[in-house]
Amino acid sequence: MRSVVGADYLFGRADAEGDTFEYGVALDGSGSASAIPPGEGRGIGDTRHFFGLYANVEWTPFETWRLEAGARLNHTREERGEGETNGGGREGEAEGRRRDTKPSGGVGVTFTAWRRGSDALRLFANAKSTFKPAAIDFNLAEGDREGEAGGILEPETAKSGEAGLKSELFDRALRVEVAAFLLDLDNMVIAQSVGGLPALANAGQTRFKGVEASADWRLVRSLAVRASYAHHDARFRDYLTEFDGVPTQLSGKRLEMSPNHRGAFALTWSPARGLFASAELAYTGSRYLNKRNTALAESYATLGGLVGWRTDRLEVRLAGRNLTDRRDPVAESEIGDAQYYRLFPRRVDLSAAVRF
Question: Structure pTM?
Fold first, then answer.
């Protein structure tokens, strides 16, 4: 049996200053920065204290069983002020304060169902409860946002469970892992347009569930193949928000930019000296571009690879990413509603390293 008991304390101080203003840019990107009128100077100051007491126990009553349990008591205190800046200070400052004391913890079990030499088959399961203060919203727009206490978001809490198996076969040449999970998350922080300006908000209740599988097989000493697949289902459970002033319940809708299917396949040749190379094919399934699930983006695949030469002291490599040059939307922009970051274009890098 092994046990750990401890305490930790995290202090953070964040400040942001900037100007708010209105401006317009045509769809073709034309516009002049000189035409932007002077704005209103605003500032934000946020101070956070995060304290925790924790204990963890790992017990191996038999060679084939390992049991784990842990608990943590979390206490956070946060203060936030925001207002117009004037000579280094903030006028008409709106203050927010928040304190939270929440427990978290988890239990887990691992059972070695079969073992022969260095090979083994292990079954595992765990259940966890977690707590995390929300990210700080640096939006300089004036006014409180719904559901916040003086601009401070609700903390994120979650309950999750996972079960699966891990196996090592053929003298550990083949490693396989399969796991299923279910996670209920409350107050998840998401990017959202508030009053036409980018901001962070709590998303009520969401549920994530799915299955993940991976395999890594060393065919010979320098040749390995890897494959992975994930089926994810991420949906809102209870999230009432507004679109164009109309209250909308998003229960049952998929989270935007969350694909149901993802997979990858890679082949690697990596000897200690001489020629080395690898290639990887990655697949991302279709996903919705918006929370109301009215705009569906198609699936896509990317190809990457590298080739190089190494000696005891010198290594030269040529690496390429997104060789198919896909420019699909991959993440929602924090700049504004219905704006997206696209996949980075084709890129090829030549590099060299010398070891002394």
Answer: 0.83
